[in-house]
Amino acid sequence: MGEFLGSNKSHKIFTPNPEMLVDAQKDEEFKKILNSGDLNICDGFGLSLVSGAKKIAGVDFMLDICKLAEEQRKSVYFLGSGSDEVVNKTAEEVKKRFPGLKIVGADKGPKIQNTHNKIQTNDENVLHKIIMAAPDILFVAFGHSKQEKWIDKNLKDLPSVKIAMGVGGSFDYISGSVKRAPKF
């Protein structure tokens, strides 16, 4: 991750699980986007079992990136969940774990509609907020396929962002809104 943060280009991190792979078989654009990830981590027991790859929960990887960002004095922005309460509580809880972490923004994100495998959203205000905050790392929690498509579409317009990661339900877990899934 240090390489990504020190780079002059943006990097996409995705966390495929079995449901995402099933959806990618039906949605060619989503499949192409997943395959374009600079780093795809195995986030699912079933994938780990079939592929032999080590399972790394997306939420754990996200928190590892936060720890690295704190150490390297990099900034983060939390986008998504659809709830001000959830995204703000996520930022609060992450700040408790990593007191030196620079959190430059937390936004519930735009309303996203997924119609015919295409996402539709009004991103201008959100993009402006992110550009003005100039984070090094952007965590996006819109749910699978929507967050990956959003990152793929918008990352090129966010010049400060070195890492954009789709984090699914991580904000719900970190904020305490839902319990963590069992390890198996």
Structure description:
The structure is a single chain. The protein is an alpha/beta fold and 184 residues long. The chain contains 9 helices and 8 strands. Strands 2-1-8-7-3-4 form a 6-stranded parallel beta sheet, with helices on both faces. Strand 7 (137-141), helix 8 and strand 8 form a beta-alpha-beta unit. The mean pLDDT is 86.
Provide key terms for this protein.
alpha/beta, globular
List the helices and strands and how they pair.
Layout lengths: L1 H5 L4 E4 L3 H9 L1 H8 L3 E2 L4 H7 L6 H15 L2 E6 L3 H14 L4 E6 L5 E3 L2 E3 L3 H10 L3 E5 L4 H9 L8 E4 L3 H6 L9
Helix pairs in contact: 2-3
Count of extended strands: 8
Largest sheet, in brief, is: 6 strands, parallel
Mean pLDDT: 86
Tertiary shape: globular
Biggest sheet, spatial arrangement of strands? 2-1-8-7-3-4
User: What would you call the quaternary organization?
Assistant: single chain
Please give the share of residues in helix: 40-55%
CA-based gyration radius: 15 Å
Poorly predicted regions are none
- The SSE order reads HEHHEHHEHEEEHEHEH
Name the beta content range.
Answer: 15-25%
- N-to-C span: 26 Å
